[in-house]
Amino acid sequence: MRIVVERDACIGAGQCVLTEPRVFRQSEEDGMVQLNTDRPAPDAVEAVETAVSLCPARALSLEP
Ligand code: SF4
């Protein structure tokens, strides 16, 4: 699985960071999402899927 971020769409709500802080973080410059990795570890996959579904801006998606 690979995480794809549409950074232009992100509104910096931080929901993804709260859901899985091992994978998502917010930029100190503009508050927008950044990835620690685009290929989450197996034990993070469920939380990443939750984060993708919760993103209010639909800025996150998954590729197989
Ligand atoms: S939940 Fe979506 S809008 Fe909020 S910081 Fe993460 S990617 Fe950006």
UniProtKB/TrEMBL annotation:
Source organism superkingdom: Bacteria
Known cofactor(s): [3Fe-4S] cluster
A Pfam family it matches: Fer4_15
SUPFAM superfamilies recorded: 4Fe-4S ferredoxins
GO molecular function, one term: electron transfer activity
Keywords: 3Fe-4S, Electron transport, Iron, Iron-sulfur, Metal-binding, Transport
Function summary: Ferredoxins are iron-sulfur proteins that transfer electrons in a wide variety of metabolic reactions.
Stated name of the protein: Ferredoxin
